[in-house]
Amino acid sequence: MNLKRRQVLTYAAGFASTVPFAAFAQDTPSVRVLKDPNCGCCQVWIDILRQEGFRITEERSFGTQLVRHKLDNGIPEEMMSCHTGEIDGYMIEGHVPVADIRRLLEEQPSAVGLAVPGMPYGSPGMGPEDRREAYDVFLILKDGSTEVFKSYEAA
């Protein structure tokens, strides 16, 4: 194959222009979210993550099927909420703030993931933050125990 100088330069320029985008795509966190398709607060949480640059794939899941997925992946019953996310090997249960997800990914503790049990008012997707109730984000350890990862005071 005999390439002319112009063809080589064209190919090189085309390749070089895609490298920054490929690097960006690899750095963009991807979250798989299992949720009931009729849940509005789950969708708001997903929208918040998208606005913060996360790539989201949504999967429909209902009732016992969703609960079984949570239990099978190390989320204790008392830590459960309405939706479950998976990112870089970690489980994200409920309305966990973006800052805490980013901290988890940065610190990479040996853990199952994070959880905000229940649906506390004012957590992401659950109403205005300036009227939030106090709640904790828990780190779920591999033995099933939990510890407070971050506490949020009432507004």
Tell me about this structure:
This protein has 155 residues and is an alpha/beta fold. It has one domain (29-152). It is 35% helix and 26% strand. It contains four helices and seven strands, in the order H-E-H-E-H-E-E-H-E-E-E. It has helices spanning 5-27, 40-51, 63-72, 98-107; strands at residues 30-35, 55-60, 84-87, 90-94, 111-116, 135-141, 146-152. A seven-stranded mixed β-sheet has the order 2-1-3-4-5-6-7, covered by helices on one side. The protein starts with a helix and ends with a strand. Residues 8-25 have low confidence and may be disordered.
Order of helices and strands: HEHEHEEHEEE
Strand proportion: 25-35%
Low-confidence stretches: 8-25
Can you list the strand order of the major beta sheet? 2-1-3-4-5-6-7
Count of DSSP strands: 7
Query: How would you classify the quaternary structure?
Result: single chain
Fraction in helix: 25-40%
Largest sheet composition: 7 strands, mixed
Counting helices, strands and paired strands, the structural category is alpha/beta
